[in-house]
Amino acid sequence: MDSLIQDVRYAWRMMLKNRGFTLIVIMTMALGVGANTAVFSVVKSVLLNPLPYPDSGRLVQVTFNQPGAGLNNVPFSGPELEDIQAAHDIFDAVSVVWPTSGNLTGGSQPERLELLGTSPNYFSMLGAHAQLGRLFEPQQDTAQGFAQAVVISDGLWRRLYGADRNVLGKRLFLDNDAYTIVGVLPPEFRHPGKTLTKDVEAWLTAGFMADPFPNKRNQRIIPGAIGRLRPGLGLAQAQEKLDALAASLRLAYGSDYPAQARWSIGIQPLLESLVGNVRPMLMVLMAAVVVILLIGSVNIANLLLARASARHKEMALRSALGATGTRVTRQLLTESLVLSLIGGSVGVFVAALSLRVVVLFAPHTMHRLTEINIDWVVLGFALLVSVLTALAFGLVPALQSRSTDVFSGMREGSLGSGQSRKIGQYRASLIISEMALAIVLMVGAGLLLRTFWGLLRENPGFQSSNVVGASLWLPAPNDPKADRYLTVEAQSNFAREALRRISGIPGVEMVGTTSSIPMGANPPAFAPLVIENRPVDSSTDVKAEQIRVSPDYFKVMGITLLHGRTFDDHDRSDKLGVAIIDETTARRYWPAANPLGARIQLGEGVKQPWLVVVGIIRDVKHDGLDRDGIPHVYQPVYQSRSRRVNFVMRTSLPAQTIERQIRQELQSIDPSLPIFNIRSMDEVISASLATRQFSASLVAAFAAVALFMVSIGVYGLLANMVEQRARELAIRMALGAQRADVFKMILGKGTMIAAIGVICGIVISLLVAPTINFMLYGVHPIDPFVLLAVPALLLGVALLASYIPARRAANKDPLVVLREG
Questions:
Q1: Whole-angstrom Cα distance, residue 767 to residue 436?
Q2: Contact 389, 33 (CB under 8 A)
Q3: Pairing of β 111-118 and β 202-206
Q4: Which of 234, 268, 317, 474 has its C-alpha lying 20 to 30 A from 718's C-alpha?
Q5: How far is Cα of residue 560 from the mean position of the Cα atoms in its chain?
Q6: Considering the chain, what percentage of its residues have pLDDT values greater than 70?
Q7: 478: closest CA among 39, 79, 20, 145?
Q8: Which SS3 state, helix, strand or coil, does residue 724 take?
Q9: Cα–Cα distance for residue pair 324/639, rounded to 1 Å
C-alpha cells in the first residue's frame, strides 16, 4: 500500500513537472471518455433501461395484422377488443391506447390538446398512482362509450390551472364534450407508447362498445392496444395462444375475416415497439465514439512513448539502482492510470454538458429523451472506460521500459539511437492504426453527409417554396346528434367557406385543403385497394394511402398532372365517385394497361363506394424524401369525410406574417376551432429530415475530431523524431547533405506513414461501410467519391502536419546542433 501511495505521489510530481504534456493527455481523455459517456447514457436510457413501470418486461404491444393484404398494425373493433381482454390465459390486462387530440374550449382561446383514449384498466395495468385525486378505475369508470372522467398531466395542471390543488371536479371541454377532472398525474409519468406530436396532456377512458364507437366486428377503428402478459408466460408461448385464438375467430366469424387477408394477432415487447426504430442509429453513434476513444488512446500512447524515449536514461538509472522490471512497469502504469482518471473525471463533466446539446437537438420522434441522465451506472461506465483506456495507452510504454538495457540506456540517455529508433517504429505503427481508424470514421461520416445532402436536393414532387400550411381538426363529440360536422355535406360546406375566406387574405394567391400535408406529422393511413373485375390474390400486396384534397390542391402545391383531369367543384357527394392516382399506383397495379376509367374501392367492406380513376399525377414524396414506391389514391374532399383539415396557401408572405389573419378568418366560421402548425412547407421538409440531420451531424463532428487528432499525432511523431535525430541530421548536413534533402526525408517519412494508414483504412472501410447501408439513401456504401475524397483530405492534413517539422529540421544550423549535442 505504501509503495502504491509512493507511485501516485511520484506520478503527481511528474504531471506537475510536465504541465503541457499533462494538459494535452487530460483533454484528449476528457474528449474520448466524455463522448463515450454521453452516448452510452443515451443508449442506456433509451435502449437498455426497462420501462419505468412495475414488472415492465411483461408489457407488450398488441397488433392486429392482415399479412395477406400486406397490412400490419391495422385497426380493430370493439368485439375484437373484448376477445383479447377475455383471453385470461394470455393476458392479465389489455387496454386500448388511442393517440388523438382534441379541441380544448372554454378559455380565452381554443387550443389543441394531445389526448390518449384508454380502457379503464390502463393506469392499474401500468401501476401508476395519482399525485392528486384518483386515476381511472374499472369499477367507477366503466362505460360503453366515453366516461365523463378525465385525468390530466402535471404539465397541463400547471399550465392551465397554475397547480391549483382545487382543480378536482372542474370541467374540461374537449370537442364540445364536458369532462370532470378526477386526477392529476405525477410529473414523471409518461405514456409508454407513440403519440401524435408531443407528450399526452389528458387521458380519457371508454368501453369502446357504444357511441361514438360502432359495436360491429367488421367496423374496425380502434388503432392500438397494450397488454400485460400473465406471470410465467413467455413471448413465444403467448404468441402460440394468440395464433390459436385468431384461428378460432376466423372460423367462427368467417364473413368478417376474408381468407385472403389472413387476419392475425401479434405481440411485441413494449420497449422494442418504442425504441426499435432508433436502435440501429444509436449503435452507429456508439461505434463512432468508440473509434474516437481508440484514436485518443493511440494519440496518448504516442505521447507516452515519446516521453519514454526522453526518460530512457531515468529508467536505466532506476534499474541500475535495483528496481525490478515489474516495479518500473507498475510505476508507469500508475502514471497512466492517474492521468486517465483525471481525464475521465473531466470527461464526465464534458458528457453532462454534451447531453444537454444532444437532448436539445435530438429529433422529437426519439422516445424516452426525458429519461436521459448520468446515474451511477453511467459513472461506473466512465470509470471502466478510463481504467481500460489507461491500460490500453499505458501498456506499450510500460512494457517497452522492461526491455531497457541498463548500460546502453546509461550510455545513450535521451539521445540514443538504438532504443529510440525502436520506440519510433512503435510510434509510427500506432499512427498508422490511428489513421486507419480515422479513415473508417470519416468514410462513415462522408456517406451520411452525402445522403443528407442528396435528400436536400431530392425532388419532393411538389414546389415547397412560397407555400404555407395550417392545420385544424374538426371536433368529434361523443353524441353523434351533437356533431355539426358528421356528414360529408357539413364538412364540405365548412371547407368551401374556409377556402373562400382564406383566399381573400391579402397576399394569398391560391389555397387548397388536404387531409394530410406531405411529410407532415400525421401521415395518411394505408387502406386495402380493391380493383374491379380483378380477383383478389392473397400473395399480392394491394394497398394504398388515402388522401382527401380540394380541387385547387394540386395547383397550389405545383403537382404535375400527367394524364386525365384533376378534381373540380362538380365532384360532390351526390355525383359519381372519382379518384386520382399517382405514377407508382398506376405502374404497380396497372403495369400493362391504362388505369383511366378503372373502378376501385378503398377500405374494407362491401359498403365502400366505387371510385372511377380520372387522373394520374406525378409521384409526391408524401411519406418522406427517403421513401419511394408508396401508392397514393386521392379523393375529392367534397365526396369523403375527414376530421383532419390542412390548408395549404401559395403566398410570398412568411407564415408568421399571415398567421393572425388565418386564425381570424377560420375562427370567424367556428370560434371553437384551434388553428395550429402554421408554418412553411420548407420548414415541414426540414423537420422531416431531423433524424438524419441529427445522426449525420454527430458522426461528422466525431470525424472532425478524429481528423484533428490524427494531425496532432502525425505532427507530434515527426517533431519528436526531428528532436531525437537532430545530431544525426546535423552530421548529414555537415557531410554535404542539402537542406532540401533533409526536408524531403522528413516529409517523405510523414507521407509514407500517412499512405500506409490510408490504405489500411480504405481496406477496413470497404468491409465496414455496408453495415450502415440502412442509414443511406441514394448513396452506395462503396461510394467512389467518398472513398477518394476522404483519403485525399486526410493525406492533405497529414502533409500539412509533416511540413512544419520538416521545415524546422531543414532550417537548423548543423554547427549549432553539434556544439549543443
A1: 13
A2: yes
A3: parallel
A4: 317
A5: 33
A6: 84
A7: 145
A8: helix
A9: 91
**Is residue 581 helix, strand or coil?**
strand
Has this prediction a pTM greater than 0.85?
Answer: no
For residue 524, cis peptide bond before it (omega within 30 degrees of 0): no
Residue for grid cell 502504491: 4
Which residues are paired to 649 by β-bridges? 468, 511
Cα-flanking dihedrals φ and ψ of residue 121, to 5°?
A: -90, 10
Q: How far is C-alpha 600 from the geometric centre of its chain's CA atoms?
A: 37
Residue 29: how many CA atoms within 13 Å on its side-chain side?
34
In tens, the pLDDT along 123-168 reads: 999 999 999 999 998 776 666 778 889 999 999 999 999 999 999 9
Mean pLDDT, the chain, integer: 83
pLDDT category of residue 466 using cuts at 50, 70 and 90: very high
Residue 104, C-beta contacts closer than 8 angstroms, at least 6 positions apart: 110, 111, 112, 113, 172, 173, 174, 674
Q: N- to C-terminal Cα distance for the chain?
A: 42
What is the grid cell recorded at 330? Answer: 507498475
Kindly give the pairing relationship between strand 676-680 and strand 543-549: unpaired
Give strand pairing partners of 61: 226, 268
Cβ within 8 Å of residue 427, ≥6 positions away = 302, 305, 306, 717, 720
> Tell me: the pLDDT tens digits for 218-271?
888 888 999 999 998 999 999 999 999 999 999 988 888 888 778 899 999 998
523's CB contacts (< 8 A; 6+ apart) are 516, 545, 622, 623
Angle, in degrees to the nearest 10, between helices 690-724 and 325-361: 150
CA distances from 578 to 218, 550, 572, 595 (A): 25, 13, 9, 13
- Contact residues for 485 (Cβ-Cβ < 8 A; gap 6+): 474, 475, 476, 491, 494, 643
Name the residue type at position 614: V
Cis peptide before 212 (omega within 30 of 0): yes
> Does pLDDT of 89 surpass 50?
yes
- Compute the average pLDDT of residues 436-462: 90
Q: Flag whether pLDDT at 416 surpasses 50.
A: no
* Segments in 253-324 forming alpha helices (H): 270-275, 279-310, 312-320
Question: Is residue 22 left, alpha or beta, with left meaning phi > 0 and alpha meaning psi from -120 to 50?
Answer: alpha
Pick from 441, 450, 434, 439: nearest CA to 288: 441
- Residue 393: how many CB atoms within 10 A of its CB? 27
Q: What nine digits make up the cell of 675? A: 388553428
430/498: higher pLDDT: 498
- DSSP assigned state of 478: S
Do 485 and 643 form a contact (C-beta atoms < 8 A)?
A: yes
At 579, phi and psi to the nearest 5?
-150, 155
Q: What is the 3-state secondary structure (H, E, C) of 345-376?
A: HHHHHHHHHHHHHHHHHCCCCCCCHHHCCCCH
Pairing of the two strands 202-206 and 146-152: antiparallel
How confident is the model over 674-701, as pLDDT tens digits? 998 899 999 999 988 888 888 888 888 8
Q: Are 60 and 269 contacting, i.e. CB atoms less than 8 angstroms apart? A: yes
One-letter amino acid of 575: K
